[in-house]
Amino acid sequence: MRYLNLTPARLKAVAIAQLRDDLPVWFGCDVDQSYLREEGIMDRDVLQVDELFGFPVETCMDKAERLDYGESLMTHAMVLEGVKLDSEGQPLLWKVENSWGKDHARDGFNTLSDPWFDEYVYQVVVDKKYLSDEERAVYETEEPTVLEPWDPMGSLARCR
Q1: Is residue 160 part of a domain?
Q2: With contact defined as beta carbons under 8 Å apart, do 17 and 126 qualify?
Q3: Looking at residue 116, which CATH number applies to its domain?
């Protein structure tokens, strides 16, 4: 696999561009974090663990630290099917189709909050045409950094 390292804001922008063309977006995330499976809700505030324990548990590390220490990694892939934007065009909620069948969540669909996206979505797959010219040039011409086999970005590619 070949990745282009983009900020969460840019990942969202390219995902929204592809969704606007009525094309779904495959993405990799950590479904083991702040996720009510039965209800199909992925939201950082859905479980208030820090308040329960009285000290930072979920908020004690940022996204990079969670990856470095193995607290988070890509555990599942799903498909973004839609996005709800605010009046300024910023995402609020994402419509997610899961592969766990129609009996899961709401007829097989989840709702993902935008703050959850920031923290637990690690990759999106979009057509290269949604990248800027500069991003496309980097992707196509720069020598890639080869990741170690134990790097968390390869977790979805491993056999389980």
Answers
A1: no
A2: yes
A3: 3.90.70.10
Q: Amino acid identity of 31?
A: V
Summarize pLDDT for 58-108 with one digit per residue, the tens: 889 999 999 888 889 889 999 999 999 999 999 999 999 998 888 888 888
pLDDT at 101: 85
The reply to whether the predicted model has a pTM over 0.90 is no
pLDDT at 160: 44
- Give the range of the structural domain holding residue 44, as residue numbers without chain letter: 8-151
Is there a contact between 99 and 110 (Cβ–Cβ < 8 Å)?
Answer: no
H-run or E-run covering 36:
strand 35-36
Alpha-carbon distance of 150 to 68, in angstroms, equals 11
Tokens representing 95 are 């419509």
DSSP string covering 54-109:
TS-STTSS-HHHHHHTTS----EEEEEEEEEE-TTS-EEEEEEE-SS-TTSTBTTE
Within a domain: residue 145?
Answer: yes
Residue 158 pLDDT > 90: no
Distance between CA atoms of 145 and 3, rounded to whole angstroms?
9
Total domains in the fold of the chain: 1
